[in-house]
Structure formats: C-alpha cells, structure tokens
Amino acid sequence: MNYSRQREYIKEYLMSTKEHPTAEVIYQNVREEYPKISLGTVYRNLTLLVELGEVKKISTGDGTEHYDADTSAHSHYYCRCCHRIMDVEITPSVDQILAASSTGLGTVEQASLLFTGVCKDCMDNGK
Amino acid sequence: MNYSRQREYIKEYLMSTKEHPTAEVIYQNVREEYPKISLGTVYRNLTLLVELGEVKKISTGDGTEHYDADTSAHSHYYCRCCHRIMDVEITPSVDQILAASSTGLGTVEQASLLFTGVCKDCMDNGK
DNA sequence: ATTATATAGATAATCATTATTGATTTTGCT
DNA sequence: AGCAAAATCAATAATGATTATCTATATAAT
Q1: What is residue A125's DSSP assignment?
Q2: Which residues are within 8 A (CB) of B90 and not within 5 positions of it... i.e. 6 or more apart?
Q3: Which family does it belong to (chains A, B) (predicted)?
Q4: What are the tens digits of pLDDT across the range A26-39?
Q5: Which fold has domain B71-126?
Q6: What is the per-residue pLDDT across A89-126, written as a single tens digit (0 to 9) for each?
Q7: A105 contact residues in B (CB cutoff 8 A)
C-alpha cells in the first residue's frame, strides 16, 4: 500500500478529536486542509484504515457509521437523542471474551460493548 | 395505536426464527402469508416494534440492520464473512452496567455486547 | 352501521455508501 | 534526476437501504 497525504490527514484529524464523527463530518473537516478532496476518497480511506486496524468503526443503528482513531480498549455511550457517542472506560472482561471464544462459534476478533440511553444534555433540554 | 395483523405476523415470524433476519428477509418471509404486503410496511412496523421494546435491532456495520424478537438478556456473535448473527449466552455484567450508569453521562437504557469474528462454517470453507 | 382515525400498499424520494473512470501522484528502478 | 508501473485521487454515476408520501382500506369507538 502506498502513502497518501489525504489518508494521513484523515487519520490525524480523527486522532485530534474526541468526537466520533461520521464520514460526512470527517469530510467537512478534512476539506479545510484539502479543499479538493472528495467524499469517496474519505470513504475509501476510512475503509482502508479500518482494515489496517488503525481506526475503528462504531455502529449504533442511527443510519450512519461513526469512526474512532482511539483503538485502545474502551467502550461507548450512545445518546439516541443527539446521536453523539462518548467514551466510557469500561471494557468487556477477559472472562466474557474467553467465554465467547469457547462457544466454538468461531474466532473472536473483536468484542465491543455499547451503552445506549439519553445523555445529560438532552435530558436537561427536556427530551 | 391500532391493531394490525401484518404487524402481528411480522412479530410472530421474528419469534419463530433463530436467525436474526434483515428487513428484506423478513419481507420475503412475511410475503408468503401476506402476498400483498409492501417492504415499507415491514420497515414501518419494525420501527414501531422496536420503539415498543418488543423487538431489538442489531447493528453490525455490515450495511443492513438485523432484527431479533428475543428480548431476553443475551449477546450476539457476528461473522464478518457470511454476515450471520448467532446468539451467545453472555451478558454485560451488572457491574459494567452500574459503572456505565455512574459515569453521569446519562441514562443507560440498553447495554449490548457484540463479538465479531469468522464463524466455523466460513473457516471450514476456507476464508 | 357510521364516522373518524390509523394503517396498508404502492411508489417515489432520500440518504449513505460503493463502484467506475480518467487524471494525477507516488514508488521503485536505472 | 528521469522514467515506467502501480497506487491513489477527484468527480461522478450507481447501488442499496431506509424513509416519506399519498390514496385506499382496516380498525375502533359511538
């Protein structure tokens, strides 16, 4: 695989933010540095980065995928109102992963824990 | 909310299967009983059933949502090859849920644990 | 049974994502 | 440095999943 500054910058941007942006949001931000970049390039490179394991894709069921360059073991809190994702310093336990592995279903490459609810901000603004 | 036999049957079908079908698969199956039903009706009712808490939506990031009428506490194993979902009798621990609640991020309505890998069938068929 | 409202069915529209294509950039070699 | 081959880009078209719209039908209450 060849080097690409666009891909480099996409990852840089992802590492610089605590948000868990969608491809569209990433596109808007990367555009400030590379005004000519196209949305397809963002998608292509996000897919590559995910395959390389440098970025994680977070699926919440809200219709778009979110991305996170923090690959350390942590989980996410998803607000079903504002669709934001926050980090939670909780991880699937070793026991849980071992238990899943020993079911014999197949390899366990990833274990992810997602909490869903309504965040404080949304509750304060009545919802 | 009014009663609807179509909605009733969608739930019946979902309860009758161990698969975790997509809207499209549900549509194909419900069509055998209600040949005139339309895909939009399936989506509309799935959304309603999820809102009622009678059905759960499972997001794997494979491009389509899967549905499950088994609302008991359990987790899922997702094969990234064949895109099938299997049940795993492991649940997020009370400790994990309490810990998530006590972060103060917001309410915790749901905690879901997803294991991803390559299932046995796919490995046997070399992939 | 009549009437009001919710849902169905058909279809069009939208939105996210992927594929295609020709131009440009990067790499590896001399 | 200069050049050919391969990879990536930008632009855009295509696809696929999901949602919205609109008229007809089914449901529920009187």
Answers
A1: T
A2: A96, A99, A100, B74, B75, B113
A3: Belongs to the Fur family.
A4: 999 999 999 999 99
A5: Dna Ligase; domain 1 (3.30.1490)
A6: 999 999 999 999 999 999 999 999 999 999 999 999 87
A7: 77, 86, 88, 117, 119-120
